[in-house]
Amino acid sequence: MSNTTSVSQISPVMATYGRFPVTLVKGKGSYVWDNQDNQFLDFTSGIATCNLGHVPNAVKEKLEEQLQNLWHCSNLYNIPNQEELAELLTANSCGDQVFFCNSGAEANEAAIKLARRYSNKVKGNESPTIVTFMQSFHGRTLGTLTATGQEKIQHGFAPLIPGFSYLPFNDIDALDELNSIKPAAVLLELVQGEGGVIPANQVWIEKIAQICKENDILLMVDEIQTGIGRTGTLFAYEEYSIEPDVISIAKGLGSGFPIGAIIAKEEAAKGFEPGSHGSTFGGNPLATAAGLATLTHIIETNLLDQVKVISEYLDSQLQSLKEKYPFIKDIRGKGLLKGLVVEINALEIVQKAITNDLLILTAGPNVVRILPPLTASKEEINEFIIKLEKTFQSIEKGE
User: What fold, for 57-300?
Assistant: First the structure.
C-alpha cells in the first residue's frame, strides 16, 4: 500500500546520482543556462559527450530532417543512415564491421560478449577469461561493472560475473601474467578517465599489443571517453601506433544523442552471427543521423587540428596555474581530456566552481577533470582559467 505522506516527500527519480544544485534547461556551444537564466561555461561537455558543443548546427539540421521522415524501425530491416555511418567508421579506423547500440556500457557489454563468443565458437574455448586493469571504468551493467577494476563500483552487486582477471595499469612486469592467464581478450582504456585521467604508457601498450598478437588474444580498446576526437585524433589508439581488434565508442559519437558502437576487425567479428546479439533501439534512424552528422563534421573540417592547438594552449595555461598554486601537483591526460592532481578535495573545487559559473568534474577524490568541447576557442580557455583561478582564490581564503 502506498503512503501518500511519504511519497510527497520523496523524489520520484531514484537517488542514483549525487546531483549538484543546478537545473540546466538550455545549451549552445560551450555554454549552458539554468532555469534561473544563469549562464555557465561548461567544461564537462556532458562528460565528454558534447564534443561539438551543445546543440551544434550541423547535427541539429540532420536530426530535424530525420524527424520529418522516420524515427524508428527495427534492425530486421536495412537502415540507410546506419549503413552510411558504419562505412564512415570503418573507413576511418582499423576495423571492418560495426555493431550499434545505445551507450558506452552497452558497447563494452557487446565487446565482452563478442570476445567470449569468438573464443567459444571460433576457437573452441568454453571458459574464456578477459583481462582488464585496476582503476579502470567500463560501465554500469553487471558485465561491465565486473570488468571495471574498482571495488567501489562493484560494491553491493555480488555475485559478480566470473571470467575476469585484473592486472595493475601501466605495470610492464605484471604483463608476464598474461602467459599464465591465457586470456581470450584484453580490455583497456588508453586514458583511464574515471580512474584519475591516467594515460597509458607507450612502452606498456606496445608490449600488450605484441603479447596479444603473438598469442592470438583479442586486443579490445575502450574509447568511450577518448574516441571521436577527444585526444586530438579520431581515436586515441592512433597515437599509440597500435591496431586493436575491437574498439568501443559512444559518448562523443552522437553529440549528446544516445548512441554507442563497437568496431571490430573482420576476424573478431566472426564471433557474432544472426541471432547472437541485438538491440531494439541500437542504430535507429535518429541515433545514426546524429552520429553521421557528428562524424562527418569532424572528418570534413579541420577540427582535429584545432584540438591539437587548443589542447597545447590549455596545457600552457594550466601549467601557469600550477606554478602559482602549490596544491596542484600534476597535470595529466591527452588532448582535451585533462586532469589536475590536487592535494585538496577535488569535489570542493568543483562545487566552488559552480558559484563562479563554471562546470567541471572530478575523477576520484584528488583529481579535477576538465573536458572542454572540441570547438572551444582560446577566448573560452582564457575565461575558464580566470574562473578556475577565482575558484582557487576563494578556497584559499576559506570563502
Answer: Aspartate Aminotransferase; domain 2 (3.40.640)
